[in-house]
């Protein structure tokens, strides 16, 4: 049953590991701006230069929706 | 009428058709072209009409030629890598984020750009070898994202954000979970064989987890309790600190003496819930600043005229100089719509200075050469040359900030509702604990100490301490949703106690545009009307512009002759008919009778062929619902108007106000501050509502200072709250809501006292087992949180319905 000492040690180490990860993420400023990244992740595909045709189609669509 | 494809405004006067799209002005069209030519038209697909009309102003960013200023603005500067953070108030949608972060498509010298949307800032890394900061700023301005750079940016940057509360909360939560886990076996299996063997390990592990909770996470409560006791205040942190220390000491003693498992789980839970409340109470609006002074309103640099050293003729060199470096005797140049940062004497040019923001005078004032000009005025006509009288810190306006009120911490003097109940609570808690101990000494002395500590543990006012943070935190968010942005939650408590409301006039009760215009005098015939509009069209004076805007634009003819005398008026001639439009003295010099009267009001007088016809009188347009606000407000509070303007509007204003309202005119900034101080000395709780720099003193002195703003992103003076101008008519409801919020807190107090009584029942009879404390503590905390959340939610719903 002394295996429980080892299990305890492991569980504490794992818990401390997650705690350290939390502290590090706060320290690096990840939670300072929680809004912009949520918008930014939706752009990623558009950062690639679009072909001319896709621009016109998307434009036409936007005009249609306007009407 | 079609809407502009770029900015979404209605195309009024001109409609520009371009690539099957309509634009309201050339500025908008240019932005579209720039973006379209650079494969950035996705901008328009993300959001509809996301743009802002760019405002071109020649030479506005010339000051960025000065390397010292640039050095102050840059965050990082080494060889070909420069980093700058710019505040861009016009950031408002996802298109904005996208286009700004793709700035490198417009100029390859930009390496990266990262937007912080809540703060409305963009952090740009670029290479100054290819692109100067000035060009970068101009590029941003050209696509409608003009950065806002003020004197404040040149001052020392503040230290980093304080994240210690998050660490403390995280640590307490982490320890709370682990301790709960470890203490669970002993709650249920008391005499089990393996548990007997391992329980000491479990207990000492709990002790290790509890150590940082007591000494790091709970540190603030000990500090605050100590400070409170030193100044003879029994604040809520005193019983909390007692609770935490008793919990910790008794638990440690228990596990050392092998009496039991202790209350470490309750202690960690207590600290965790308390910090959670603290965290929830903090709602910050990153894009707003409540600490601004004149520095964020004033420009960072001006154009100084320096004598050319090579030849000592009168030719002068223009030089961009930091405002802080201006000395007495320097000559500076102020362009149209630039701000004068110092007290100065006018040397050359026609000055038409708009002081509405600094003194509350509604009208731009004409000044002639030799007149003294005060800092903070905005030039409205052409270029002027002035000589500096005093450096920026010593000017008439900025001296207001040397008043002691600006260095005082307003909140510290205020006893909040939790602390006021804590006084009685702590005293009765101690009395109960001591009485119970004495009684037990006679019955069974061995558990007397046990009872004493149990009472202190179970009565720890966790639920009481949570009631206010959660109620006020929720209210703060409700206020924010209705566009009243408050600095912190204690402002709500102060709002509930308000019994006198003081209003500023210009910019607060009135809108910034003045366009209620009435005509008095002999009616004009059609020909005269056409003559008038044709003449007005040629003038750039603000009054001419607003008068022109409301008149019929029929039969506009080209003038045969037009003359504008700055500060006086304009003369127009068509077919030998002459019209004079302007001040009374200019239009009709022979008449003197109404000179005095004419001076007080804002009026444009008209004469045709030297015969006096009449005048257009300009009234300030009052905000929508001003009268209703006064009518509902007078039931609960007193109303006072303090205006920096002259009393020309007095009659008009008093029709809106309830009878016997105090209205004071010609109030200097210090007068306003002093008036509020007098009110407070008479025991009043004053809410000041103002808008300009001239109200800054009064806003700081009042119990609650709320600054009203047409656009919350632009400058507003230091205050406790910023109210969006469109919500002006809801002021009474805001006051009522805060009063009701305090009621919710009081009910929550009663509710939590009920829990304390149950706990005391266990404690006094000497039956407080760790498992009871472990259930009671979180249960009371959670039910208080639920109660206050539901309570404020109902209040918020009613607030919506009341509109």
UniProtKB/TrEMBL annotation, chain A:
Pfam families: FixS
Organism of derivation: Patiriisocius marinus
Protein's recorded name: Cytochrome oxidase maturation protein, cbb3-type
Domain of life: Bacteria
PANTHER family: FIXS PROTEIN (PTHR41532)
Automatic annotation (TrEMBL), chain B:
UniProt keyword Lipid biosynthesis, yes or no: no
InterPro entries: ATPase-cat-bd, ATPase_P-typ_cyto_dom_N, ATPase_P-typ_P_site, ATPase_P-typ_TM_dom_sf, ATPase_P-typ_transduc_dom_A_sf, ATPase_P-type_domA, HAD-like_sf, HAD_sf
An example Gene Ontology molecular-function term: copper ion binding
Residue ranges that the Swiss-Prot or TrEMBL entry lists as coiled coil: none
Primary location recorded for the protein, binned into one broad class: membrane
Membrane topology: Multi-pass membrane protein
Localization per Swiss-Prot or TrEMBL: Cell membrane
A single BP term in Gene Ontology: copper ion homeostasis
Keyword terms of this UniProt record: ATP-binding, Cell membrane, Ion transport, Magnesium, Membrane, Metal-binding, Nucleotide-binding, Phosphoprotein, Translocase, Transmembrane, Transmembrane helix, Transport
Transmembrane segments: 165-184, 204-222, 234-253, 259-280, 425-443, 449-476, 744-765, 771-795
GO CC, alphabetical: plasma membrane
Record-linked Pfam families: ATPase-cat_bd, E1-E2_ATPase, HMA, Hydrolase
Keyword DNA damage: no
HMA domain location: 82-148
NCBIfam families the record matches: ATPase-IB_hvy (TIGR01525), ATPase_P-type (TIGR01494)
The protein's name in its UniProt record: ATPase
Lineage: Bacteria, Pseudomonadati, Bacteroidota, Flavobacteriia, Flavobacteriales
Gene that specifies this protein: ccoI
């Amino acid at each position: 049953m002394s295996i429980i000492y080892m299990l305890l040690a492991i569980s504490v180490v794992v818990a401390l590991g997650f705690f350290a990860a939390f502290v590090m993420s706060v320290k690096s400023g990840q939670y300072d701006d929680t809004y912009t990244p949520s918008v930014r992740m939706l752009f990623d595909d558009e950062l690639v230069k679009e072909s001319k045709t896709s621009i016109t189609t998307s434009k036409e669509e936007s005009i249609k929706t306007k009407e | 009428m079609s809407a502009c494809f770029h900015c979404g405004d209605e195309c009024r006067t001109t409609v520009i058709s371009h690539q099957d799209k309509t634009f309201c002005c050339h500025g908008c069209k240019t932005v579209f072209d720039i973006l379209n030519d650079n494969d950035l038209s996705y901008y328009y697909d993300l959001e509809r009409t996301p743009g802002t009309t760019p405002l071109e102003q020649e030479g506005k960013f010339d000051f960025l030629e000065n390397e010292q200023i640039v050095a102050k603005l840059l965050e990082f500067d080494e060889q070909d890598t420069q980093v700058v953070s710019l505040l861009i108030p016009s950031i408002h949608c996802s298109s904005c984020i996208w286009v700004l972060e793709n700035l490198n498509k417009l100029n390859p010298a930009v390496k990266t750009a990262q937007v912080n949307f809540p703060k409305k800032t963009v952090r740009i890394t670029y290479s100054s070898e290819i692109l100067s900061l000035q060009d970068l700023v101009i590029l941003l301005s050209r696509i409608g994202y003009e950065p806002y750079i003020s004197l404040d940016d040149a001052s020392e940057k503040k230290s980093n954000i304080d994240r210690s509360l998050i660490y403390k909360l995280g640590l307490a939560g982490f320890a709370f979970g682990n301790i709960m886990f470890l203490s669970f076996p002993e709650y249920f299996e008391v005499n089990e064989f393996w548990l007997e063997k391992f329980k000491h390990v479990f207990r000492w592990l709990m002790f290790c987890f509890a150590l940082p909770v007591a000494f790091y996470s709970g540190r603030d409560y000990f500090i605050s309790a100590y400070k409170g006791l030193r100044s003879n205040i029994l604040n809520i942190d005193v019983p909390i600190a007692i609770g935490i220390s008793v919990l910790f000491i008794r638990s440690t003693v228990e596990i050392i003496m092998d009496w039991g498992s202790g209350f470490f789980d309750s202690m960690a839970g207590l600290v965790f819930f308390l910090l959670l409340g603290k965290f929830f109470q903090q709602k910050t609006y990153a894009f707003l600043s409540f600490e601004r002074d004149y520095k964020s309103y004033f420009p960072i640099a001006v154009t100084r005229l320096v004598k050319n050293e090579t030849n000592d003729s009168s030719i002068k060199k223009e030089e961009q100089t930091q405002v802080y470096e201006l000395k007495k005797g320097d000559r500076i140049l102020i362009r149209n719509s630039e701000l004068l940062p110092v007290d100065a004497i006018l040397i050359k040019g026609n000055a038409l200075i708009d002081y509405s923001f600094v003194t509350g005078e509604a009208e731009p004032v004409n000044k002639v050469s030799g007149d003294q000009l005060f800092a903070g005025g905005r030039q409205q006509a052409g270029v002027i040359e002035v000589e500096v009288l005093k450096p920026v810190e010593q000017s008439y306006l900025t001296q207001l900030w040397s008043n002691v009120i600006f260095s005082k911490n307003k909140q510290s003097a205020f006893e909040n509702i939790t602390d006021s109940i804590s006084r009685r609570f702590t005293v009765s808690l101690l009395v109960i604990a001591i009485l119970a101990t004495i009684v037990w000494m006679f019955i069974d002395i061995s558990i007397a100490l046990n009872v004493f500590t149990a009472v202190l543990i179970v009565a720890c006012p966790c639920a009481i301490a949570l009631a206010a943070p959660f109620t006020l935190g929720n209210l703060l968010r409700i206020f924010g949703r209705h566009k009243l942005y408050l600095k912190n939650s204690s402002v709500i408590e102060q709002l509930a106690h308000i019994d006198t409301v003081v209003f500023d006039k210009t910019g607060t009760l009135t809108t910034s545009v003045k366009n209620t215009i009435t005509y008095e005098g002999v009616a004009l015939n059609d020909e005269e009307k056409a003559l008038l509009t044709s003449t007005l069209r040629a003038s750039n004076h603000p009054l001419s512009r607003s008068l022109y805007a409301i008149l019929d634009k029929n039969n506009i003819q080209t003038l045969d002759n037009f003359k504008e005398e700055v500060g006086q008026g304009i003369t127009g001639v068509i077919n030998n008919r002459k019209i004079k439009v302007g001040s009374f003295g200019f239009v009709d010099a022979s008449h003197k009778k109404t000179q005095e009267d004419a001076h007080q009001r804002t009026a444009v007088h008209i004469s045709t062929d030297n015969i006096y016809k009449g005048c257009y009188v300009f009234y300030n347009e009052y905000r929508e619902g001003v009268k209703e606000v006064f009518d509902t407000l007078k039931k609960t509070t007193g109303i006072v108007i303090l205006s920096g303007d002259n009393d020309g509007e007095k009659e008009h204003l008093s029709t809106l106000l309830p009878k016997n309202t105090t209205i004071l005119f010609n109030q200097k900034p210090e007068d306003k501050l002093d008036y509020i101080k007098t009110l407070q000395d008479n025991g009043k709780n004053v809410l000041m509502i103002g808008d300009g720099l001239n109200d800054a003193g009064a806003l700081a002195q009042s119990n609650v200072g709320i600054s009203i703003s047409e656009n919350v992103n632009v400058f507003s003076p230091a205050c406790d709250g910023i109210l969006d101008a469109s919500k002006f008519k809801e002021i009474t409801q805001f006051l009522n809501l805060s009063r009701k919020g305090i009621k919710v807190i009081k009910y929550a107090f009663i509710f939590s006292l009920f829990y304390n009584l149950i706990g005391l029942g266990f404690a006094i009879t000497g039956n407080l087992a760790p498992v009871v404390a472990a259930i009671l503590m979180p249960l009371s905390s959670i039910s208080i949180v639920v109660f206050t959340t539901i309570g404020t939610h109902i209040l918020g719903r009613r607030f919506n319905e009341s509109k």
